Inverse folding.
């Protein structure tokens, strides 16, 4: 069974949702890293999520807020998993140029979080 193609506006909303999830995952991961102490591996992981969130936000049109509303989930790994699931629904076409690096980044961050 194939996934139906998203309309361009729906695609942009989905990418904005992914940016929100990543932004809040970075904030939660940074809080956890702060509890681990200075120079922890958690700090590097939180920074990686933050960088990917910023990269994703750059793909969102100006009229859509890539930071609000805040997701209700608090666990950074769960937020990454949700972002990964949503990323699978984003079509590869001229309107999503640059998004493939976000997909790869999410997969890499999830691998780091679960290893």
């Amino acid at each position: 069974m194939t996934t139906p193609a998203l309309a361009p506006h729906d695609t942009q909303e989905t990418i904005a949702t992914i940016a929100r999830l990543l932004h809040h995952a970075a904030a939660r991961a940074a809080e956890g890293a702060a509890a681990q102490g200075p120079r922890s591996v958690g700090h590097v992981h939180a920074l990686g999520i933050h960088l990917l969130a910023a990269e994703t936000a750059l793909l969102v049109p100006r009229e859509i807020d890539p930071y609000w509303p805040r997701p209700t989930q608090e666990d950074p790994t769960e937020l990454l998993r949700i972002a990964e699931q949503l990323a699978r629904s984003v079509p590869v076409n001229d309107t999503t140029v640059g998004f493939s690096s976000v997909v790869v980044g999410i997969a890499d961050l999830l691998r780091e979080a679960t290893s």
